[in-house]
UniProtKB/TrEMBL annotation:
This is SLH domain-containing protein. GO terms for cellular component: cytoplasm. The lineage of its organism: Bacteria, Bacillati, Bacillota, Bacilli, Bacillales. Pfam families: Cadherin-like (PF12733), RCC1_2 (PF13540), SLH (PF00395). PROSITE patterns: RCC1_2, RCC1_3, SLH. Residues 795-858, 860-918, 919-980 form the SLH domain. GO terms for molecular function: guanyl-nucleotide exchange factor activity.
């Protein structure tokens, strides 16, 4: 025989999970794309939904009260799924079944040793499996005989599990039913034949006939068996609960029956549907554009379709002639290309509703949903002259110059060239699949065996001995292929080009196809394996998974784009940026789809992607129609950290004629914006609004010739827009002088007072620590000196029963020795008890000798009976407290940590204190009214936090905390600190 050249193509493969069966199951089967790979099947249970991805893994969502969405870890190689009531089934490519979820009735106890399974169905409490030999296995609840498979039942090609009953469709187009029958759901209507699909609800049954009409029987309380008048052109049916669904060849959905939750309210305008699935109270539809539409009951999230379950329009079936190609789209239309010498690529105008295609030689075939055949192209041997009256067809095949059709009754029709007997079919029944070669024909029977006839010059019709458990067949010009239920491939016939040399280790196959002199296999992970003649590139899978370009509107990547480089990083996005714009350009816009962040996107158009956190990874996926996907990633790094400002010399405690420090600003992420660097010298820690001057990082900034305390302020910004502000510690400046005459231009002289020298030395000047209108610092030093001397003389001690080992034990002891506290009559101090506002006012008066002032306009109306009335009024007169806006002080209310800081900030000159600006960065001050006072007090080491960056401003202060903070303030005066430290 002369070798016939092939056009160089491989079209998209449908993942034919029911490849042995000419009839569909009641579950919805369709190509989809989820996150990372295509979704091939969907199934709806009572409160949950399932999706099967092309990589053989399962996604589940919705209710999970019985573990029905807990997909077993490591479950792969799945080729079909079924969702029951609170449980799930998965059929693996090796013909075994995995089950999980509710097992109250043993419905997930898969029978030991069950293999060779080609289809599954899940009911309410029972499970069904169809084996490759056409027999049925059932397990689970059997109270009504729903798991009692009728004896001798064979030749089954489809199954459906209902509420408490079961259905089986035989290869002759008849239906067998068993189980619960109170509503007549197992009373198959007399004379029902030519059935091509079945479905079972809770208490009703449905059958789709080859003429596109629907028959229903059983319970009708909700109208679920009232098939709408005139309903025709149906290509798929589904039932689960108490409603029914039908998918028409025009891509629309019809629903009827129970509608309490809107499950029968088909969304307005829903078109382009290619698959349906009915749950108990919800419905699903898969559109030809790859999107899933769900409606009905959603209390368990069963109609909340997971984000990313959208896909490009994919081909659903392919076929090839000698030099032309056919593709069936998921919308039921046909595309053809290649050699057209005989019109074989002239698809008839208006051809729709196609469910299958076939081609070989120079002619083409299309099977419509009504069971009729349309043929075109070369007709020299009558191969496109479809026999008159031929209907009820469920499968077609095209040979070199002949054609085959499989009818719903399991018989085969053949026409065209018969020089080798390839169209002579005699007594052949129980057929579930057909294939046509160059001059030979193949038939797969329901028992998993293969029959071959026609030309045998290369052994192509000599079926290997013992070949069983076959689930799919394919025929080349002079060779034959068989796919077994364990996912392996057997080949025989002509091997001149290696077309029957199956690659070693090839497993997990779910679909096969044969060219003239080459062979193809589709694996469960969506990859294609090809072998045999490659003279025209026919074993080189076409298509392009590359991008031509990838860009981010916000800036450049870390490396230049190259199609072979799949990982890119952008540094950095500012802290306020919430989205970025990605533009990707496909290398092949004809046969590939583009997904940005798992959402469909037009090539070379900008997609806006939300970002959050410090790192966002954006997948950009190329989905070729014919090849595995390739994913590029863009990692967007967010710079939320401001620049770091460092002072070479951070202040000086002693007087100096000049201040000088090197200032360095660094940023390890987006870098420092050099134009943003500014400094200002002021005599306050408050950020100035004017007086800013630019500088260069690393430069030295100086101040001289002006007396007083000075602070250096720095502000900076990084490339991402993060700003930083810093202020130095105090620089103490005293201008150079001659004698007693100041030479400076400023008249500022800090408040000075003599320092008490306990050792009799000469006093030296110091700046006031306290507000002189409230605390006479000299008098305070004398008072503390007197109390310390007295304490040392009398050796005053008091051992409280509850302070030993306490963190504030030494602090409490100091105040005891100073005779400022006494404790309670029971010998306790209760250091962890909250301190009231009255108690804190009394402590302040005793510790600081508060001087009453002229603030007499404030009158507090609730202190008349307070034991601390005099102390409170003294603090009011001094301006330390003002009370609440309602004119009260609430003396018996506990004081908060924030309120303590406010009172102390009115006693202390916070601006005169040396500060450590690294302190006080608390993370819980939102809502606090004294943020500035808390920061300043922390930087002056008056207060500290509670760990984990918290200050806890609104929490009640304890007696021990109050004493510690007062002690910290007292020790701000160096003389007082020396005196207090002398107490042992």
């Amino acid at each position: 025989m002369e070798k016939i050249s092939l056009c160089c193509f491989i079209s998209i493969f449908l993942l034919l999970l029911n490849v042995t069966l000419p009839f569909g199951t009641p579950k919805a089967d369709a190509a989809q794309t989820g996150i990372g790979s295509r979704v091939e099947k969907i199934s709806a249970g009572e409160q949950h939904s399932l999706a099967l991805k092309s990589d053989g893994t399962v996604v589940a969502w919705g209710g999970n009260s019985k573990g029905e969405t807990n997909v077993p870890d490591g479950l792969t190689g799945v080729m079909s799924i079924a969702a029951g009531t609170y449980f799930s089934l998965a059929l693996k490519s090796d013909g075994t079944v995995v089950a999980w979820g509710n097992n109250d009735w043993g419905q997930t106890n898969v029978p030991a040793g069950l293999t060779g399974v080609v289809s599954i169905s899940a009911g309410v409490y029972h499970s069904l499996a169809l084996k490759s030999d056409g027999t049925v296995v059932a397990w689970g609840r059997n109270n009504d005989g729903q798991s009692n498979v009728p004896g001798g039942l064979t030749g089954v090609v489809s199954i459906a599990a209902g509420g408490q009953h079961s259905l089986a469709l035989k290869s002759d187009g008849t239906v067998v039913a068993w189980g619960y029958n109170s509503f007549g759901q197992t009373n198959v209507p007399g004379g029902l034949t030519d059935v091509v699909s079945i479905a079972a609800g809770y208490y009703h049954s449905m059958a789709l006939k080859s003429d596109g009409t629907v028959v229903a029987w059983g319970q009708n309380a909700s109208g679920q068996t009232n098939v709408p008048g005139g309903l025709s052109g149906v290509m798929s049916i589904s039932a689960r609960g108490f409603h029914s669904l039908a998918l028409k060849s025009d891509g629309t959905v019809v629903a009827w029956g129970h509608n309490n939750f809107g499950q029968a309210n088909v969304p307005a305008g829903l078109t382009g549907v290619v698959s349906i699935a009915g749950g108990v109270y919800h419905s699903l539809a898969l559109k030809s554009d790859g999107t899933v539409v769900a409606w009905g009951y959603n209390d368990w999230g069963q109609t909340t379709v997971p984000a990313g379950l959208a896909s490009p329009v994919k081909g659903s079936r392919i076929a090839g002639g000698t030099n032309h190609s056919l593709a069936l789209k998921s919308d039921g239309t046909v595309v053809a290309w290649g050699d057209n010498n005989y019109g074989q690529t002239n698809v008839p105008v208006g051809l729709t509703g196609v469910v299958s295609i076939a081609g070989r030689g120079s002619h083409s075939l299309a099977l419509k949903s009504d069971g009729t055949i349309v043929a075109w192209g070369y007709n020299g041997y009558g191969q496109t002259t479809v026999p008159n009256g031929l209907n009820g067809v469920v499968s077609i095949a095209g040979g070199g110059n002949h054609s085959l059709a499989l009818k719903s009754d399991g018989t085969v029709a053949a026409w065209g060239y018969n020089g080798y007997g390839q169209t002579t079919v005699s007594g052949l029944t129980g057929v579930v699949s057909i294939a046509a070669g160059g001059f030979h024909s193949l038939a797969l029977k329901s028992d998993g065996t293969v029959v071959a006839w026609g030309y045998n010059g290369y052994g192509q019709t000599t079926v290997p001995g013992g070949l069983t458990e076959v689930v799919s067949i394919a025929a080349g010009d002079y060779h034959s292929l068989a796919l077994k239920s364990d996912g392996t491939v057997v080949a025989w016939g002509d091997n001149n080009y290696g077309q029957t040399t199956v690659p070693v280790g090839l497993t997990g196959v779910v679909s096969i196809a044969a060219g003239d002199y080459h062979s193809l296999a589709l694996k469960s992970d969506g990859t294609v394996v090809a072998w045999g003649d490659n003279g025209e590139g026919q074993t080189t899978v076409p298509g392009n998974d590359n991008l031509n370009g990838l860009a981010l509107q916000e800036g450049s990547f870390d490396k230049s784009f190259s199609p072979s480089v799949t990982s890119y990083t952008y540094s950095y996005i500012g802290s306020s940026v919430s989205s970025v714009n990605v533009t990707a350009e496909l290398a092949d816009t004809t046969y590939a789809g583009l997904y940005v962040n798992n959402q469909p996107q037009e090539s070379d158009s900008a997609a806006t992607v939300s970002i959050s956190g410090d790192t966002t990874v954006i997948p950009v996926r190329v989905e070729p129609y014919f090849k595995p996907a390739k994913t590029y990633t863009i990692t967007v790094l967010r710079d939320s950290t401001p620049p770091v400002i460092s002072f070479g010399t951070n202040g000086n405690a002693s007087w100096s004629q000049s201040a000088s420090t090197a200032v360095t600003v660094t940023d390890a992420e987006s870098g420092v914006d050099a134009s943003s660097l500014q400094y200002a010298w002021t005599q306050s820690t408050a950020t100035p609004s004017t007086g800013w001057t630019s500088f260069t990082s690393g430069g030295t900034l100086s101040k001289n010739g002006v007396d007083g305390d000075w602070y250096l302020h720095i502000r900076a910004q990084d490339g991402a827009g993060n700003t930083a502000n810093a202020v130095s510690n105090r620089f103490r400046l005293r201008a150079a002088s001659t004698g007693s005459t100041s030479t400076g231009s400023h008249s500022y002289v800090p408040d000075m007072k003599p320092v008490i020298d306990l050792n009799g030395g000469s006093p030296e000047p110091t700046v006031d620590v306290f507000n002189r209108s409230i605390v006479n610092e000299a008098d305070l030093v004398k008072t503390i000196e007197s109390k310390v001397a007295e304490a040392k003389e009398v050796n005053a001690t008091m051992d409280f029963a509850d302070t030993q080992g306490h963190w504030a034990e030494k602090t409490i002891d100091i105040f005891v020795q100073l005779n400022l506290i006494n404790g309670y009559k029971d010998g306790t101090f209760r250091p962890n008890n909250p301190i009231t506002r009255a108690e804190f006012a009394a402590f302040l008066n005793r510790a600081f000798n508060i001087q009453g002032g002229s603030h007499t306009s404030v009158v507090l109306k609730d202190i008349g009976d307070s034991w601390a009335k005099d102390e409170i009024e003294n603090l009011v007169a001094a301006g330390v407290i003002n009370g609440y806006t309602d004119g009260t002080f609430k003396p018996n209310q506990t004081i908060t940590r924030e309120e303590m800081v406010v009172m102390l900030s009115r006693i202390v000159n916070l601006n005169n204190l040396e500060k450590d600006t690294t302190k006080g960065n608390f993370n819980d001050l939102n809502g606090a009214y004294a943020v500035e006072e808390i920061h300043a007090a922390a930087q002056a080491s008056i207060v500290s936090g509670k760990g984990d960056g918290r200050f806890d401003p609104k929490s009640n202060a304890t007696r021990a905390e109050a004493l510690q903070i007062i002690l910290n303030v007292l020790k701000l005066n160096p003389q007082v600190k020396t005196l207090l430290d002398s107490l042992s």
